[in-house]
Amino acid sequence: MFFSVVVAGYCIFEVYGGDLGKWIAYFLYKRDYKEIISNKSTGPFGITYYLSFFLLLPFCIFFCRFLSGAGLASLFGAALVFFAALISQSRTGLFSYLFAMLVSVVLVGVLNGRRGVVMFVISLPIVTIMGSYFYMNYQEILSDFSYLNAGISFVFEGNVDFSGGGEGSANVRLHQIYFAIKNMHFGGVFGSGLAKDGSILLESLYALYLYRYGFLGLFLFFFVIFMCIKSSWGKSRFFRVTSDHSRFSLYVALSAFFMSVPLALFSSAMQDGPKLSFFFYGAIACALCTSNKVGQETGAQMKNLNGSDLWRN
After folding, report:
1. DSSP 190
2. Of all residues in the chain, what percent carry a pLDDT higher than 70?
3. Range of the domain at 242
4. Structural domain tally of the chain?
5. What is the rounded distance in angstroms from the CA atom of residue 48 to the CA atom of residue 151?
6. What pTM did the predictor assign?
7. pLDDT tens digits for 83-107?
8. Residues contacting 167, CB < 8 A, separation 6+
9. Residue 51: helix, strand or coil by DSSP?
10. Rg for the chain, CA atoms, rounded
11. Residue 52's closest CA among 39, 43, 65, 64?
12. Distance between terminal CA atoms of the chain?
């Protein structure tokens, strides 16, 4: 969590740190030939949506901790991480964060009852103030986030061409998915291979996995995601009963994170990238753990709890 705060702080300095911030960013990670990211945060990844995806889980943890009653420090952490992701101007990232926020509110409200509702109500004045500031300064804000605004407007104005044609990143990714489906083998059960020669560039998880592994590979991936959600949800219910608020927040956040993964990975199969695979598959291990200390403790304590009481809570 501390590392995510450091990354978020660096991202803000990268964009708003003036000439020094830009010089450090280009010296470390950014490249001169990528002018499109000159006014966007990329963090240590060099790609906007990689940064957004990396910060999604820390955001969920901070936000769920706040909803669980951890205090305003957690809300500040969530706001800091969210803003760092926002200035990356990743359209898919923004939708993923809003969806994760909604899911977190619902999950914590269902599991934590009155406490979750109270913390959500407390946050409403802050949201109102932020909304009012945006309303009064929306023209200036939209000019700072012109790329993000143009992309969102493109989608909501009905410019997405579901026939597989058209321009824009959304249409390009849809075209890639149609291309992958047309080139699958054995009725789509298996894919067409890895295509490591670089002759075929497929960005979206759906296009890449369909082309490489077919519907079977894509199904297996989302089956693992489903099991992560199921396992995290069960652990969060357990830690709610045992009043372990820290681990309760962690597993609710993991549930919200994995529910957001199908949306977040529409832009790119980032989870297999060299800088993100460790964090993503580490989150899967945390969600599915059964033989480590957390899993053993959970299993041992659940035997001492009445199953019907656990279900009711």
Report:
1. B
2. 67
3. 2-312
4. 1
5. 14
6. 0.80
7. 888 888 888 888 889 899 888 888 8
8. none
9. helix
10. 21
11. 43
12. 28
